[in-house]
Hints:
The complex is a heterodimer. Chain A is built from 11 helices and no strands. By secondary structure, chain A is an all-alpha fold. Chain A has one domain. In chain A, helix 2 runs parallel beside helix 5. Chain B is an all-alpha fold. Chain B is built from 13 helices and no strands. Chain B has 2 domains: 237 residues, Serine Threonine Protein Phosphatase 5, Tetratricopeptide repeat; 60 residues, no CATH class. Chain B is elongated, with a radius of gyration of 31 Å. The interface between A and B is large, with 56 and 44 residues.
Amino acid sequence: MNEILAIAGGTWRRILRMRAVYFLILCVMVLIASAINYDVLSLDHHKDLMIDFSLVLNTLAVVLIVISVTFEIPVELREGVASTLLSKPLGRTHYLVGKALGTSITGLIISAIIIAGFFIIFNFAFGERISMAMLQSHVLVALSVIPMSAMAVFFSVIIPEMITPIVTAIAIWFAFSTSALANVKILYGGILPALDLYNFKSFAVYGEKINWDYIGLSILWGLAFSTFALSLASLIFRQKDIK
Amino acid sequence: MKSTLIHIVLIIAAILIGGAIAGHMHEEQNKQMPYKSLENTTPIGGFHKFASDIDWMLVIQYMGGLKSVSKENVDEVIKRFEKIVSYDPNFESAYEIGAMSFSVENPEKAVEFLERACNNPQLKNNWKLPFYAGFILTHSGKDDPEKVKKAIGFYEMAIKRSPTPEMYVVNSYLRARAKAMGLNNDKLAMLKILFGEWKKNAGMREIETTSIIPDLNQKILKAAQEARREYPDDKELIEFSKKVMQEVFKDQHICTYCLSIYAPGDKFCSCCGQSVQVFGTCQKCGTVLKAGFCHKCGTKAPAVLVQAPSVQEGMEPPPVAKKVAKPVPAKKAAK
Lengths: 243, 335
């Protein structure tokens, strides 16, 4: 466990030390706040727009964090950092799990900062309390980083470095539409990622409250899918030659 | 080998557990968001609401550039609004503004557009949507009984959805129903509709069913007054209004000529000046009674005088052609 935490710590420290990350978070806040000026342009739908804007930008932030790992793993493999790490008493599975965990924690931290910033902006702009639906929808966006990280690690291992980020982005994009296959048991959510289960963006505007059980289940599903993706990635990774 | 086996077991277990959880969550999600099935299935990364917001702002800009919605651009306008609601089936403003904007050029499409919104469970409390649909139908298909019938259904839906229905919604509903009757005398048709509603309601009092029309009695009175004013020579109307008054207002005192309610002690109707049957006065001194005994002479009031006699039996309305009553303001009549 310590080895996994060590790998994870390295990942999140590397990302959270980058100043660009905080600059991007600031940009996100400015974009969210800019929705207040869309009152005329949207015929007084600017409040809905701000809620939706915040959820979209939060999702994009999470996706960007996740994609960053698709650059990191191939680089570590190419430059021999991974082989140094793996020469220690550290299994390849530990390495992959550590990377996924580190990315997830980074995503959760950055998402939490965006959520907090959005709530302050919303309260300041409209003088209203944050609804439970809004909070829960944001929490679900933040939690979607768990399966997304596993997907990113999986693709980093199985496909060439050049196309990993693009393939990961496309896979995440389409993973929000797999609900069309919801009737195919096992495949939906078992093999194919079902990120649509985390999509409550319209609910944040129209809904009242999501059952907390649902949010608990979303964590469980994220862990189950990550177990599948990381185990499969680990099986493939074990067959690879590392310099 | 052992490690590989563990991995395989883990993969199978994770697939089974993940599949089961995802199936359950999908059902839960559909329960929480029943409108999700109405959403466009285009894979846009789950940004459907965002896409609808963007399209909404674009359509506002587009509409701002048009002089009017005409035959040349109506298809484009419909396409744009359709796109918005396909991404966000709960976008009430898009339904309302969209349908009204192309209702003149393409009323059928506007009604279909609104009907879709009416069937959305998330919008079940919006009464404007069915009202607009009914409004478009009544104005586009004035002579089409099928359209009028359909409009009645929409108006009824609008009244049922609203906790306190607006007067214009109720009046539109009644007018549509009167039109559906196909009578030449629209006032008589209206009175028949209201009386029918009252009778239906009166028959169901035991199970406490109330009419969807608020202030039904007042509406009946007003409709009868208007009808008598506008068609003073229509015998059928006079007979029918008399029957209505006797049944609906049997506990009240109403001038048989102008159908205004009068007060205890009144000898003449304050609205039309016709003599009315006096009630609620002391038999001895003629003072208006306030309770069971006369407050001036102490005579006990006979129960029959304190209680209301029904609408003056046998009191025929005076010849209407000679003296036409002045229009009675609704508020005054209600008093």
